[in-house]
Amino acid sequence: MRTGSEPTTARSALRLRLWLSVWGLIWAITGTVAFTLAGQPGWAIVFGVLWLIVTVDFTMVLRHIHQGPHYQPGRDIPPYRPPEHRP
Fold it and tell me: What mean pLDDT value characterizes the chain?
């Protein structure tokens, strides 16, 4: 829903989120493997859950990047005004 107060050039930093997800994946995988080899199953599970969360975020960011730009109404379209409530 457009309110008319949002910036006209607002964009999400999807590429930055993608690279931060890659960085998180590297650390989560490394932590999971390291703690598994060190015999610390509790920390390995924590890093395994983190790995899962980062993988889901990575997938969602890729999905949004592949969707491309979404339709945004132009300046000639007035913002949506909710109907007034009548008592």
Answer: 82
